[in-house]
Amino acid sequence: MVKSVAKNKRAYRNFDFEEFYEAGMVLRGTEVKSLRAGRCSLKDGYAKVTDGEVFLHNVHIARYEQGNRENHEPRRKRKLLLRKPEINRLIGKTQQKGYSLIPVEIYFKKGYAKVKLGLGEGKKEYDKREKIKKRDQERRIEKKLKEHSRREY
Description:
Strand content: 35-45%
Order of helices and strands: EHEHEEEEEHEEH
CATH superfamily of the largest domain: Small protein B
Number of domains: 2
Number of strands: 9
Strand order of the largest sheet: 1-8-9-2-7-5-4
CATH topology of the largest domain: Small Protein B, Chain: A
Distance between the termini: 53 Å
CATH class of the largest domain: Mainly Beta
CATH architecture of the largest domain: Beta Barrel
């Protein structure tokens, strides 16, 4: 059973993803409780490979309200758990120009917090405009076809 906590819808608008990876997260107790309450934002998040390990940066997990002085820092970097071959593949891919590792979704799977990472290139502004223009044209065509099929002869 998978329970989604947070999704990064803006990532699909700003990036063309080629591959997706599922990674576990090393979290503190108050972070897990805050995630279960759904208090998380992936808005400015990204992942980076450093010294053979993958870390999640700039993901905001709100402080747990009932937490004590051992409460966590909301935007701390968090270690991600991936297998060595996956990390080596990510090292090669992220060193290519324009490729980024972006968190797309955080969810609980079998009681464990997981993050879905997307590997892809950032879209240019003109690419975004072309996609919007194409979508509008398709909508107009669908509307015309619908009107045409409603007419009685």
